[in-house]
Amino acid sequence: QDVSGWSCAAMNDLAIGYLCCLLSCICFGSNYIPVKRIDVRDGWFFTLWLTVGIFLVGFVQWLAFGLYKFEPFAMLGGLIWATGNLFVPLIIQRCGLGVGQLVWGCTNMLIGWATGTFGLFGKNVDTVSKPAMNYFGVALSIFSLFLFAGMEQPKSEDTEVQAREPGISLNASEGNASPENPSPENPALLESPYGEPSTETRTEARRFFLGFVIALLAGVLFGSNFDPPTYLQQQGQADVANGLPPRHSPHAMDYVISHFTGILLSTMCYFAVALAVKRDQYLGREIILPAIGSGIFWGIAQVAWFKANGALSYVVSFPIIVGVPGVIASLWGVVLFGENRGKRNGTLLGLIILVQSVAVLLIALSKG
């Protein structure tokens, strides 16, 4: 009877974990719909109010879960995420949206997955019953991110780019035809009359390399943002296993408010510095409510990710939650905004959905 009860509880926990993955993917894939048609300028003011929305979700969750203990160390996870988010506009300006998303998305997924698989950064090793199946599922999920990079982006007169990825806020101008960011449409900036790389080309190559390196760093930060609260959670679980009073909560959901407070306070500090450096920051009131709405979506997604990590482990939740929201965002783009049209984009999107479906199935089955 005890074994049967334990099996039933384990199955229920797995079901909840996968439902949380689904909720997280939907919310991450939808969280920028409220601001899709709004010009957020350089993104600083938008990001500030986005994090206010995130904190509101965390505060409601804290009330709903009984005012659990606040853990200052877990705020470090929020600082890590906010710092990675800070780099996104710079990455877009240096190496473009497609490459930037690909680099930080792959790095984010791999860091989170590897942290659980190999026990990095003090994380306990996560075990799965079918490791080879898990590896192949992760590889397919990464492959789908490469397919996203091949989708053609619509060109607009103002070259304003708006794009979204799970756990990321960005809105930066690529400046496709400016001297600072030359493009194939302006070939005079790319090579000298003698067929040798011009000064502009070498400068652009250095800018691209810098953006690429920063994108790698951002991906590492995004993939590590759960580690501080997970470290405390593991200590609590070890204490309970040894029959001791837990120093920290053994439950993943008891670190949400600390994590979200870290996000808000870090972003407020970064915004204050940006305001001191550039006093003419755009502070448009029309941004506030849509940004809060986006933050609420993001916060719900992150809360669900906390639960999925606890129920399924990093090696299952990270590949699913990092990989799938891009598909959902692309589908919203087709349905609501007429994006991703054309035979090439339609074919690629269909292939991405197929690859991601197989990847998610393999990763889920690998858990056992």
TrEMBL record:
Annotated InterPro entries: EmrE-like (IPR037185), Sugar_transport (IPR010651), TMEM144 (IPR012435)
Ranges annotated as spanning the membrane: 15-33, 45-67, 73-92, 99-121, 133-151, 208-226, 255-275, 287-305, 311-336, 348-366
Topology in membrane: Multi-pass membrane protein
Superkingdom assignment: Eukaryota
Keyword Cell division included in the entry's annotation: no
Subcellular location: Membrane
Region annotation Disordered: where it falls in the sequence: 170-198
Single Gene Ontology MF annotation: carbohydrate transmembrane transporter activity
Keywords: Membrane, Transmembrane, Transmembrane helix
One cellular-component annotation, GO: membrane
Pfam families listed in its UniProt record: TMEM144
Chief place of localization: membrane
Family: Belongs to the TMEM144 family.
This protein's name: Transmembrane protein 144
Lineage: Eukaryota, Sar, Alveolata, Dinophyceae, Noctilucales
